Amino acid sequence: MTTELIELVDARVSPTGQFDILSKYEIHKLTDTSRGPQNTIFRNCALAVLNCGNYMDDGKELLEKFSDFDISVIPTERSVKLKVTNAPATAFVDGRMIQGIAEHLFAVLRDIIYVRSEITGDPRYDLVSAQGVTDAVFHILRNAGTFDRTRAPRLVVCWGGHSISREEYDYTKKVGYELALRSLDICTGCGPGAMKGPMKGATIGHAKQRDAHGQYLGITEPGIIAAEAPNPIVNQLVIMPDIEKRLEAFVRTGHGIVVFPGGAGTAEEILYLLGILLHQDNKEQPFPVIFTGPASAAEYFEQIDRFIGETLGDEAQSRYQIIIDDPQEVGRQMSAGILKVRQYRKDTGDAYYYNWKLKVSTEFQRPFVPSHENMRALALHNNQEPYLLAANLRRAFSGIVSGNVKDEGIRNVEKNGPYELRGDPALMRSMDTLLNSFVKQQRMKLPGKAYTPCYTIAAD
């Protein structure tokens, strides 16, 4: 038996961006808050950022591997510094932290500590009503500097799995390249696989068009960041408080969505999006959605399309198009769709940078805690509005993601056994068929890792 030797580094990191100049009050508050209840989340997210490039999809494994890692906020006369102890050496070059990683590290400080004290922990913000949550999402994104009111609609959200084949990964790069040639930007969940590929392809497309202002926006949340550490191309990183606010950030900032092959997390995102688009208030709003992959992914999208048809119906299927093995056509269709979005926003007076008019009901905003009791109690039956069924199916897949890759979810399943999902027989058969296909295609974990299901499926 051999023990892996891990090279570690201690360092102090100088601030970037908005932390360059702070008041005494801000310095004190950041230092004080960083030692409070959010310290564990701050530490875990910082470790994930520093582990960039060392891909793993198990939050528990990462925290155990670097159990001696620590980070603290050190006050200075005009600002703060970050002191890291036992950090992964891959975050450094010749003893200095890589600039992009340093920027991501201060984004962690901004979003975990500042946002907690100024927004989610502030009683002035109503995080119960739909409008209150939408306002909070807006303020977090604005504080991160993601908005540009002079920029025309051009942000394409790309969803897909972290565990994909090389052929699928190369295809995502081709699509990102075609989008960038049409002056479109990329937003993803910021991790590896289908989250990195479109950004990588887009860097070449933007360079060919001499577009030096390409936006590569990565949106994550504390529970998932360890499994999907920000890839180095991300030039704007935002860590939302939970998965529901992360998903709302995607659909309110994006002007169109491209879905690549993925696993349970991608299914969760699809169900969230379709559930929102199925709401009566959103039926007239243009929102281009394209499912795409190489020829080898045709069967995957047939399975996804079949599952959507069997659970949510024809109307849900009408809200997207499937384009197989044609990156140029994806670029053309998305560019044309975003032109319609721009005209709609112009006609209705809505902001280009944030979709205020999109109706997101509270069923899609309330944080779902995937405990065994909550998973068992999900209303997985057809006797409800399609958008409500989509909300409950989304929660089921969210729980599976937690059990697969999140530290807390993995420990919960290890202690109490698999989550139990129960519902209408036909619906559960469809869900079981889809999940089994993910397992067979190795879409639940990174290639080479054996997968033990964190769930069981039963019919009522």
From TrEMBL:
Domain spans labelled Pyrimidine/purine nucleotide 5'-monophosphate nucleosidase N-terminal: 12-118
Catalytic activity field: AMP + H2O = D-ribose 5-phosphate + adenine
Annotated EC: 3.2.2.4
Taxonomic superkingdom: Bacteria
Residue ranges of every copy of the Pyrimidine/purine nucleotide 5'-monophosphate nucleosidase C-terminal domain listed in the record: 340-457
Transmembrane segments: none
Protein name per the record: AMP nucleosidase
Organism: Microbulbifer elongatus
Lineage: Bacteria, Pseudomonadati, Pseudomonadota, Gammaproteobacteria, Cellvibrionales
